[in-house]
Design goal:
The complex is a heterodimer of chains A (305) and B (354).
Chain A (H helix, E strand, L loop, with lengths): L4 H21 L9 H23 L9 H8 L1 H32 L5 H14 L1 H12 L4 H8 L13 H25 L3 H9 L4 H29 L3 H5 L10 H11 L3 H26 L13
Chain B lengths: L9 E11 L2 E12 L3 E5 L6 H9 L6 E6 L2 E2 L5 H4 L2 E3 L11 H11 L4 H14 L15 H13 L6 E4 L7 H18 L3 E5 L2 H7 L2 E6 L2 E6 L1 H6 L4 H6 L4 E9 L5 E5 L2 E7 L5 E7 L5 E2 L5 E10 L4 E7 L4 E6 L8 E5 L6 E4 L4
Parallel strand pairs in B: 3-8, 3-9, 6-7, 7-8, 13-20
Antiparallel strand pairs in B: 1-2, 1-4, 4-5, 9-10, 11-12, 11-14, 12-13, 14-20, 15-19, 16-17, 16-19, 17-18
Helix pairs in contact in B: 3-4, 3-5, 4-5, 5-6
The chains are: A mainly alpha (305), B alpha+beta (354).
């Protein structure tokens, strides 16, 4: 090694160290590279298809670049799908959140939490089609539900609970509940139990403890739960077809997109419907997350433990 | 005084027990507390002191026994119906409420009027010297300030009883001393009755009017700090109260109330507590074992720690018995030394208590 190259090599080494330090100060190190696969997947499987669909939606088969959107919002058969979907997704989301709170409040105190949680979570593994099949049998005109109600004389003829709005709603609630429940349970158990005890020693009755302590601390969690549950519910497809009335009451927006793409072979129109679907979800989610900002969002335990 | 604690004469725990499965966390605890007393429940972790406090607060149901507040039986009441103020170890301040709302919470639950709540909250915050922070959230306060809020929140409801569960254990050493004095000052000023749980004997001795020493769920001794410091009734209490030298020995009575005991070859005079002859355990404080020219115990220094005023040392006798001692002169490991202890500071206990 010549004497001349030694200072040069040292300089290079110092530069490398400076760069490394510069990166480290910004929180970037070798581990950051592990994000690369996720970034590639997101780009390839979300960003690219999204942009492709967006561009596609502005290239209708006929008419000017806004043609698809104009068609959608002038044709009642198309734009009513938004309200029909909201009319299913919003109640199902609310009902699931409201139903999961008391269950989670109880389960949080149980010793055999895991067993009960497992039982409650089983519907996730069933899948929508199996739930639909079960409901068709159970809630159908000749099913257990109607037969029991008729035999005890509560009703004289079967009530219709499948192949309409109610069948789809019930199926959405059943298939969505485990997800909502698990999220709610994690938020409920994240609240320091000594807060409730403190409220009790200060004279708060169970309902007051819920209202003044749990509820305000849960609201931010509810907002997230709502957004995630709602997005799932809004893209309802199988249960609307299998248990609903896909040509009428439960003609949801995903059915409209499906019809455009695979029955009319109008990819551009389908892309436009998908864009509208995304926009509606985005609006609802932004409203909910915006409202969350009005509440306390810090940790749900005492600041220093 | 704006805060006047609920009036009562005495609190009585009558054979209070609590089991967790087959484990007796609290066994037959009986205790009489007069109004205005400051009681410390003292013991090592797992001794049942927190269980006792939670039973008093109503957060745990009793397995047997009863708790009486004068002629009212309170152990079947829910915590919200007892109205005892509690200060939690982690403070348990409501993170989403301002200091004002935290302190006013108990009064709001009683359905007091807003003006009255504001007045009492101000008085309580003045008492804990925390004015000017009322609109802050607990997360914006330091540990010591949070502690003050927790105390204000517990005393503002003017409870017959204030329960404190190791309230100083999350503070640093300096703040702990400061808050210790504050807790006693507030207790005296308000005239409340306080039950204070701690594992720190210094805290118990300096704060309490009476100390209850618990071990394995049972009461071992109830006494004033002076009694506990000078005359622990059992060897295990002595050990917990800082009698670090605990040695098995044999005792023979001398006839004038004292007994003669042996440590290795050395014979010493001691004061019998619950045994005067036969197989015994002797206990004495490191502070009472000092080097002296005529000291009966010959030992070799094995470790020495400089403590500013004096040295804290460890020595071993030729038989291998390890003893802790205090020395005003510098001592160094390896040095041969003669140690002695005053007869009235060497306590003799029955064997088998440990």
């Amino acid at each position: 090694m010549s004497t001349v190259s030694i200072p040069a090599a040292r300089e290079r080494a110092e530069e490398r160290r400076d760069l490394r330090q510069w990166l480290a100060l910004r929180g970037i190190d070798g581990v950051t590279l592990l994000l690369a696969p996720a970034a590639i997947f997101t780009l390839a499987l979300f960003v690219y298809p999204f942009l492709y669909g967006l561009v596609l939606s502005f290239r209708p088969n006929e008419g000017d670049w806004l043609g698809n959107y104009r068609t959608f919002f002038t044709d009642p058969f198309l734009h009513t799908t938004i309200y029909k979907t909201l009319w299913l997704a919003l109640p199902a989301t609310f009902i699931n959140i409201i139903a999961s709170v008391p269950v989670a409040m109880r389960v949080r105190l149980m010793k055999r939490q895991r067993l009960l949680t497992t039982i409650l979570v089983v519907p996730i593994t069933l899948g929508t089609v199996l739930i639909a099949e079960g409901l068709l049998n159970y809630l159908g005109p000749q099913g257990w539900f109607n037969r029991v109600l008729m035999s005890i004389g509560l009703i004289s003829s079967p009530i219709r609970l499948v192949h309409n709005y109610w069948g789809t709603l019930i199926s959405l609630i059943i298939s969505g509940f485990p997800f909502t429940f698990l999220l709610t349970l994690s938020y409920v158990t994240g609240i320091d139990p000594s807060l409730e005890q403190a409220a009790a020693t200060l004279g708060a009755k169970p309902w007051e403890r819920f209202r003044h302590i749990f509820l305000p601390l849960l609201v931010p969690g509810f907002a997230i739960t709502f957004a995630l549950t709602f997005v799932q519910m809004f893209s309802v497809f199988p249960s609307a077809v299998l248990l609903g009335e896909p040509a009428g009451e439960t003609r949801v927006i995903s059915i409209a997109a499906y019809t455009a793409a695979y029955e009319q072979y109008n990819d551009s129109m389908a892309a436009a419907i998908a864009m509208i679907m995304g926009a509606v979800q985005l609006v609802i989610v932004s409203i909910v997350l915006g409202l969350r900002g009005a509440f306390y969002r810090g940790p749900a335990n005492t600041a220093k433990g | 005084m704006a805060l006047a604690p609920h009036d009562f004469r005495r609190l009585r725990l009558d054979g209070v027990s609590r089991d967790f499965g087959s484990f007796n966390a609290l066994k037959d605890v009986t205790l009489d507390v007069a109004r205005g007393e400051f009681i410390a429940l003292l013991g090592p972790s797992g001794c049942g002191k927190s269980t006792a406090l939670n039973c008093l607060a109503g957060l745990l149901t009793l397995s047997s026994g009863a708790i009486w507040l004068d002629e009212t039986r309170v152990d079947r009441l829910k915590p919200e119906d007892r109205g005892f103020g509690m200060v939690f170890q982690n403070y348990a301040l409501f993170p989403h409420m301002t200091v004002r709302r935290n302190v006013g919470f108990g009064l709001a639950m009683q359905g007091r009027r807003r003006a009255e709540i504001a007045k009492k909250v101000d008085a309580a915050l003045a008492l804990v010297r925390l004015q000017g922070q009322v609109e802050k959230l607990p997360g914006q306060l330091s540990g010591g300030q949070q502690q003050r809020v927790a105390i204000a929140r517990a005393i503002v409801i003017e409870p017959p009883l204030v329960l404190m569960d190791e309230p100083l254990s999350n503070l640093d050493a300096k703040l702990r001393l400061e808050m210790r004095a504050e807790i006693r000052r507030i207790h005296d000023l308000v005239g409340s009755t306080t039950i204070y749980v701690t594992h720190d004997q210094d805290e118990a001795l300096s704060l309490a009017d009476r100390v209850v020493v618990l071990r394995e769920g049972r009461v071992r001794q109830i006494g004033t700090p002076e009694e506990l410091y000078a005359r622990p009734l059992h060897a295990d209490v002595a050990e917990f109260m800082g009698y670090r030298n605990v040695v098995a020995s044999r005792a023979t009575p001398t006839g004038n109330g004292a007994s003669r005991v042996a440590i290795g070859d050395a014979t010493l005079l001691g004061t019998p507590v619950d045994a005067r002859e036969g197989q015994v355990v002797i206990a004495f404080r490191p502070d009472d074992l000092t080097p002296r020219a005529d000291g009966p115990i010959a030992a070799t220094v094995t470790a020495a720690e400089y403590r500013g005023r004096d040295f804290f040392g460890k020595a071993a006798t030729s038989a291998g018995t390890e003893l802790y001692f205090r020395s005003e002169q510098k001592v160094a490991p390896g040095e041969a030394i003669r140690l002695g202890v005053d007869p009235n500071r060497l306590l003799i206990y029955a064997d088998g208590a440990l």
